[in-house]
Amino acid sequence: MSLSSSTWTVLRRNMTKVSVLFSVVVVLALLFVNGVLGTYHRHGFAEDGEVGIYELKKGNISLRLTNWGATIMSLLLPDKNGKLDDVILGFDSVNDYKNDSAYFGSVVGRVANRIANAQFTLNGTRYKLTPNEGKNVLHGGPKGFSDVIWKVTRYQKDGHTPRIIFSYFSHNGEEGFPGDLQVSVSYTILGDNHLSISMKAKALNKATPVNLAQHTYWNLGGQNRGNILSEEVQIFASQITPCDSQLIPTGKIIPVKGTPYDFLEPRTVGSRINKLPNGYDINYVLDSGQSTKLHRAAIVRDKKSGRVLELVTNQPGVQFYTSNMIKEIKGKGGFVYKKHAALCLETQKYPDSVHHPNFPSEIVYPGKSYEHVMLFKFTVE
């Protein structure tokens, strides 16, 4: 069958359109992959408002994160024999983090820890917050920073300095807090097995309390090992801020000497934990005082694996928590986490500072910035 000249003309025009369309698709795909449009990660494309999984890798250290809650999902580290283990509790699926009440690996805020009676007064104005732990507020309220999607503003998976930066805009009145707040957190692998975490915030139009914390659960023997009672801990703090039965600070600052809270010298977690009603969940007043220079907060050793964690920060306090409230949570690989399955070292301002003038202030004023640095140094011995 022969085609007329007019038919050939139509076919040529259509083929030209298809060719142009194909070229456009190829160009757009290349732009996406190279980061010009959207954000590319190993599970596909992550637009604003989409949840993704990201990986940072350098040498023997491998870190997986998600922009849901700016959360650390896993961290692989070698033991004294070179065997890699995941030393962080968590879940295999991002969806599980959306229903997580333990704050596994997430950034918590606008104000971490507790605020008594879900209210505070600032510059003559009383602000009522949304309670989520009885009549009090814990870790920012029912929908704190751990339960929102953060925007990925920078991502370099490997190379000399693997890094990812998440950002979030917290609007005026969110969970009852005053003023707009621009927040970011960066995770960077430095040198030989060092993990740097930097959390920043800027108050845009109103004074507001800000106290961010990174809520990773550590088990240096491996997330599926069991409990952390045999891990050895040293905390560079001579004092604590004691709490009432609701874990609200009384406002006092007392010495740890002669109490089960004394970790000035290295001791195993389990050595005196039975002298406490439930376990450790207390803010330590670091001996550095209110210095904003980097100072040591704690050292954790797991003698069986040989792994050592040293934590350095610019914050005045650290919350030592031994996962007392963990009860039969199904985690990664189907392993079931139980009480004392991990420990948390949450560097911070002191809890409930808005009600205690003798505590370091956590108020950030318009145009001023908040910066919180944590540096984890991992070694093997």
Automatic annotation (TrEMBL):
Pathway where this protein functions: Carbohydrate metabolism; hexose metabolism
Pfam (any one): Aldose_epim
Record's keyword terms, sorted: Carbohydrate metabolism, Isomerase
Keyword Isomerase: yes
Reactions mediated catalytically: alpha-D-glucose = beta-D-glucose
Active site: 215, 346
Enzyme's top EC category: isomerase
Positions bound to beta-D-galactose: 113-114, 215-217, 281
InterPro entries linked: Aldose_1-epimerase, Aldose_1/G6P_1-epimerase, Gal_mutarotase_sf_dom, Galactose_mutarotase-like, GH-type_carb-bd
Annotated EC: 5.1.3.3
GO molecular function terms attached to this record: aldose 1-epimerase activity
Family: Belongs to the aldose epimerase family.
Name this protein carries in UniProt: Aldose 1-epimerase
